[in-house]
Amino acid sequence: MRIGLITPEPGHPLLAATAALLAPGHVVEALDPGAAGGVPGPPADVYLLKSRTPQALELARRLERRGAPVVNTAAATALCQDRTAMAELALRAGLPFAATRTVGSLSAWAASGVALPSPVVVKSRYSRRGDLVARVDDTAELRELAARWPREPVVVQDFAPNSGWDHKLWAIGEQVFAALRRSELSPGGRGPDRPAHPAGLPAGWADLVRATGAAFALDVYGVDIIDAGGGRPLIVDVNAFPGIRGQSGAPEALAALALRRAGHGSGSVAAP
Predict the structure, then answer these.
(1) How far is CA 174 from the centre of its chain?
(2) Which of 122, 117, 116 has its CA nearest to residue 98?
(3) Beta strands at 27-31 and 175-182: parallel, antiparallel or unpaired
């Protein structure tokens, strides 16, 4: 069985551990989307799309047109990069997603004289490394932010009071993993993850994660949830194929998923 990794970083801890599990009985090939002009010969039996660049998405689309299964699909991956489309889909699906409105550019919005009666969260519309995510408490802060990001298309969400900790929930197939991470909106910024266990989540949260994956047609994904009070979940972001670092059992789950998607029986794997 041939498994392809669409990534410029095949040494990523999750991918490297997954490849080590698969290597004894299968061929694992890394494909750098920035360097590859195409895929010579027949496609692999399955590809893991661990990149969101335009080149990676186009490569995935070409492979899909040739009949190769790609996890996650190019369409599902691209949808998660557009926070406007993400919110629209989540709300149509009945998920408890933060109400989201889109602003054409930050400078135009600030110049419109909008009043901010309460804090809001401003995010780049298009998710990418180093994008904008900031809490804005008043008009003066909005003008300051617009001066730094004048042409940035953004989405705006009302700030929901919470503990300051994000619940980082990840899924590989049906298996859910969890951690707590200090919100990037907190005064001290992000810190290291705190361990958590899916069994300790409020009732229904793990099922909510799986329902989100089904709505977005994702196999490997992350769902960021905050507790909006009394265990009431509020989804603030959905990510296609996040890092899922340091989660025991994640490489085994990913290896098994790859084999299942490749049509290789039960997809069970043994530790190396």
Answers:
(1) 16
(2) 122
(3) unpaired
For the chain, the residue count is 272
pTM: 0.90
| 243 DSSP β-pair partners | none
Antiparallel, parallel or unpaired: β 2-6 and 100-103? unpaired
Give residue-wise pLDDT tens across range 81-129.
999 999 999 999 999 999 999 998 899 999 988 888 889 999 999 998 8
